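Appendix C reproduces, verbatim, an entry submitted by the partner laboratory led by Prof. M.T., so that reviewers can inspect both the input and the predicted structure.
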Amino acid sequence: MAVESDRVHAILAVLAEPTRFRIVETLAIRPHTIGEVAAVLGALQPQTTKHLQALEAAGVVRIHRLGRRKLAYLNRAALDEVAAWLGGLSVATPDDVALERYADAIAATEARISDDPAGHATILRFRRTIPAPPARVWEAWTDPRLLAQWWAPRHFEVEHSRLDAIPGGHVELRLREADGARYASAGTVSAAEPGRRLEFTLAPLGADGEPLFDAVHELTLSGRTRCRMELTIRVARADAAAAPMIAGLEPGWTQLLDALADVVARRA
């Protein structure tokens, strides 16, 4: 794969020169003699020959010597290889799709906040069925070692996490992105029934250390050998500046809960 990529890079590099690109366009119509190519370009034949030699070295053009005539034509297979390589780049990745959806969600959230800045509220509900007892799922929420394994969206790393599952307990999360940027969130536990229910606030912090909006999270667990997990998030007191963070709650928590389920499954 690396060899193919190097070959494509070499072809693209030689095509980046405008005169050579024009030669390729000319040869795409039909084979031409070197003199004909020079005439199309309005260039001297020695200059044209140098460009054709560069294209031939890269595998884009082939030269047939027919007696005293030299006929240039395209190596279509090489161009097919470039087209296939570029076609692979055009296929959207899951991250591309997620980013597009995130951008749409930000715009929709900004519009809702603008329409009703005083009374704006967002309610999100998530449900999962996890093939493990509620006690094991509860452990994933409250054990710091397990919490750090799932409490970060893709491309982020948990730098610090804490969830004290007692009324008045601290909730703290600090994430780090690949470029070194850090994001802190904090809140407080308001209710805790081990293995059954957990309610806490959690919101990103501004530069002044204050929450950027109110967000109450209510977690309920039920079942015996298979845990039915429900998480409801209620967001209020938000302004338009917080729209990107509010819009990120749905995709973010979707990733987090999927990761939580994986952590629990690995411990089964």
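The domain at 2-89 is CATH 1.10.10.10 (Arc Repressor Mutant, subunit A). Additional entries are available on request from the coordinating office.
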